[in-house]
Amino acid sequence: MASVLLPHIRNIIFDLGDVIIPIDLRAPIRNFATLSGLREEEVEAIWQEHGITMQFETGLMDDAGFRQHVRRLLKNDAWADEVIDTAWNTVLLELPVERIHRIRQLQQRYRLFLLSNTSTIHIRKVNQMLTSLGQPPLEELFERVYYSYEVRLAKPSPDIYRHVLKTAGLAPEETVFLDDNAANIRAAGELGILAVQVQPPLTILDYLNEPTDESVSRTR
């Protein structure tokens, strides 16, 4: 796997889920189905019909509003906040600390940014996981973090990439964007960003390894 750290690259933008931390997108559906006694298909249909994830991740609902919405739609007013948060956070799998080590190494040579469609509950959990591993929180790993719920935009909207480029002062041709989602990659690439889809079994450790003399010479 050739490194994407080409000589002209100065900036790296990371997605979070399935780029830095592995995720299981169906895990919350399974867990809320178990809690509610509904079938997974029923819970998934409710999620899609009401756009719960998108509303939460674009800041249209705060934590309390999200939890109350879940209680109402799944017809259980007795669930404590912690029950809902735990089920919601099952999307997050074990965090590979070696990826964090590589990001910290890259801090010395590149401007690093995080761009994620995410929610406040997930970010708190990821930061707890980082702390438990003796690592700094996301806000210290990156020069700046861009969370969808804060900027009120979500990938793959071109506006969210334009927002990052403008506010961070980045030249797209000097910028690499790493994401697992093909639509997000296409949208970033159309703006001139070097957009790379991270696909298993490869990880950012493969894409962000030190370039060899051969790979560098091919870019000249």
Automatic annotation (TrEMBL):
It comes from the Bacteria. CDD domains: HAD_sEH-N_like. PANTHER family: ALPHA-D-GLUCOSE 1-PHOSPHATE PHOSPHATASE, FLAVIN MONONUCLEOTIDE HYDROLASE 1, CHLOROPLATIC. This is HAD family phosphatase. It comes from Nibrella viscosa.
